C-alpha cells in the first residue's frame, strides 16, 4: 500500500491545501510587504462552535524569519545525522527533520511566558525556545557548554528562562508534567486576566498512554489552560497508526474535550491554528486536543533505518509533495516576497553558520568526573546548594569517594 499519509485524513487536507496562494497582497512599506494567505482545508474540528480563520496575514520579514528557523533546524538535524555516523555523538538520538513546521508554528503562536514540554525528539524545540545550534550540538557532543551542561544529551534539553521544560525520556511522561504546569499557570493567574497556557507535545505512539488519559481528566475537571498536542507522524516507532491504535482520529480522543486537526506540514496553518487554540485555552475554556498531521524523514532514532516498515518511495513522495520547507519557499516566491536566488543565499548563509557553530562546539570542554555527582543531594532549596553523596563507587575502586 502507498504511503501512510495518503491513507489517512491528511490526504483530504493535502488535496485542499497543497497549493497555498497569496490573496490580495498589500504593501505596508516598500521594504516589508504583507500578504493574506488562504488556508481553506487546513483544519478539522471536534466539539467546537468556532474554528480558526481560513486566512492569515504575514509580512515578508515574518515569513522569512520562520523559514530561516526551519532551515536552521533542518541543517542542524542533518548535521546530527552526520556526526552520529562519525561517532562524535553517542547514545540515543531522535531527529526531527520533516516536522519543522510544527515546532516553528507552535513557537510563533505561543507567548514567551507559556510553558512547553515535549518528548525526547526535542532538539528543534530547544533551538526555537531560546537555544542555539552551538548549545544543542555541544550537548550532543557531551560538552559542558551544552544546554544541559553535558548532563542531558539528546533527550533532555531544558531552558527555564524561556519556559522550555524538556525533553522527557519516558514515553508520554511529559504530559502529566505539562498538566502540572498548566495548573500552576491557572493558580498564578490574576482574576479576570487571560492565563498563560502549557503545551505538551507527544507522538501518536504515546497517545494511548494511561497517564495521558488521567491527566486529561484532571485538566478537564479543573478547566486548566492545557494543550494536548499529538504530533502524528504516522508511525509509533516502527508501527503504523492503523496497527497500533484502534482510534486514529487523535484530535477526538478527548471525547467531550474540544479538539482540532491541523495540517502540520503547512507552517501558516500551524501558526493560525495554534493561535486559535492558545486563545481558547487561555480564556478559561479548559483544555484542547490538537493533532498535527506531519511526517518524519529519519527513522524513529538513529538506530532505526526507517525503511523496514515503510519504503523509500514513501519517504521520497513526501519530500517531493509535502516538504514543509519547500512549502515555505514556494509561498515566499508566489507572494513576491523573495526570488529563488535570494532564498539560495539565505540557505548558503545558514549552512555556513551551522557548520561554524559545529566546529566551535568541537573545541568545547568535557566535564570533570566531579560533575557527575553534583546536584544529586540538595542541602537546601537554594540554587547550587548541594552536597556529595556519602559514598561514590568509582570504576577504579581506589579512586572511590567517602565523605
Describe this structure in words.
- The protein has 403 residues and is of the alpha/beta class.
- Helix content is 38%, strand content 16%.
- It has twelve helices and 16 strands.
- It has helices at 10-17, 60-85, 100-109, 123-128, 133-141, 174-188, 210-221, 241-244, 267-285, 312-322, 324-334, 340-361, and strands spanning 22-27, 33-38, 43-46, 55-59, 115-118, 164-167, 198-203, 226-232, 235-236, 239-240, 259-263, 288-293, 377-378, 386-387, 391-392, 401-402.
- It has a seven-stranded mixed β-sheet with strand order 3-11-12-8-7-5-6, with helices on both faces.
- The protein is globular.
What is the compact description of this entry?
By secondary structure, this protein is of the alpha/beta class. The chain is 38% helix and 16% strand. Helix 6 (174-188) runs parallel beside helix 7.
Defining traits:
403 residues, alpha/beta, seven-stranded mixed β-sheet, three-stranded antiparallel β-sheet, 16 strands, globular, disordered N terminus
Amino acid at each position: 500500500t502507498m504511503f501512510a499519509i495518503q491513507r489517512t485524513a491528511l490526504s483530504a487536507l493535502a488535496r485542499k491545501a497543497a497549493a497555498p496562494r497569496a490573496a490580495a497582497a498589500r504593501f505596508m512599506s516598500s521594504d516589508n510587504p504583507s500578504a493574506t494567505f488562504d488556508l481553506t482545508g487546513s483544519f478539522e474540528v471536534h466539539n467546537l462552535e468556532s474554528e480558526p480563520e481560513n486566512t492569515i496575514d504575514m509580512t515578508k520579514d515574518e515569513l522569512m524569519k520562520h523559514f530561516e528557523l526551519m532551515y536552521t533546524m533542518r541543517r542542524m538535524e542533518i548535521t546530527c545525522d552526520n556526526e552520529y555516523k562519525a561517532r562524535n555523538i553517542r547514545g540515543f538520538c531522535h531527529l526531527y527533520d520533516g516536522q519543522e513546521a510544527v515546532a516553528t508554528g507552535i513557537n510563533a503562536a505561543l507567548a514567551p511566558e507559556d510553558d512547553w514540554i515535549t518528548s525526547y525528539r526535542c532538539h528543534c524545540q530547544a533551538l526555537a525556545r531560546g537555544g542555539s545550534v552551538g548549545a544543542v550540538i555541544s550537548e550532543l557532543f557531551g560538552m559542558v557548554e551544552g544546554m544541559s551542561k553535558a548532563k542531558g544529551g539528546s533527550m533532555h534539553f531544558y531552558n527555564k528562562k524561556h519556559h522550555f521544560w524538556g525533553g522527557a525520556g519516558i514515553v508520554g511522561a511529559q504530559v502529566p508534567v505539562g498538566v502540572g504546569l498548566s495548573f500552576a499557570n491557572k493558580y498564578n493567574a490574576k482574576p479576570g486576566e487571560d492565563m498563560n497556557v502549557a503545551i505538551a507535545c507527544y507522538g501518536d505512539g504515546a497517545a494511548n498512554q494511561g497517564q495521558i488519559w488521567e491527566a486529561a481528566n484532571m485538566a478537564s475537571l479543573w478547566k486548566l489552560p492545557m494543550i494536548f498536542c499529538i504530533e502524528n507522524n504516522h508511525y509509533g516507532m516502527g508501527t503504523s497508526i492503523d496497527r497500533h491504535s484502534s482510534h486514529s482520529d487523535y484530535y477526538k480522543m478527548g471525547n467531550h474535550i474540544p479538539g482540532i486537526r491541523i495540517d502540520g506540514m503547512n507552517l501558516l496553518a500551524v501558526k493560525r491554528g495554534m493561535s486559535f487554540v492558545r486563545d481558547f485555552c487561555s480564556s478559561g475554556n479548559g483544555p484542547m486536543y490538537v493533532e498535527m498531521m506531519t511526517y518524519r524523514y529519519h527513522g524513529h532514532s538513529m538506530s532505526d533505518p526507517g525503511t523496514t516498515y515503510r519504503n523509500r518511495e514513501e519517504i521520497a513522495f513526501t519530500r517531493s509533495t509535502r516538504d514543509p520547507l519547500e512549502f515555505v519557499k514556494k509561498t515566499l516566491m508566489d507572494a513576491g516576497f523573495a526570488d529563488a536566488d535570494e532564498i539560495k543565499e539565505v540557505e548558503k548563509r545558514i549552512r555556513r553558520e551551522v557548520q561554524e557553530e559545529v566546529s566551535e562546539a568541537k573545541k568545547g570542554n568535557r566535564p570533570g568526573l566531579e560533575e557527575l555527582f553534583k546536584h544529586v543531594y540538595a542541602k537546601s532549596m537554594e540554587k547550587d546548594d548541594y552536597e556529595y553523596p556519602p559514598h561514590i563507587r568509582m570504576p577504579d575502586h581506589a579512586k572511590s569517594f567517602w565523605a
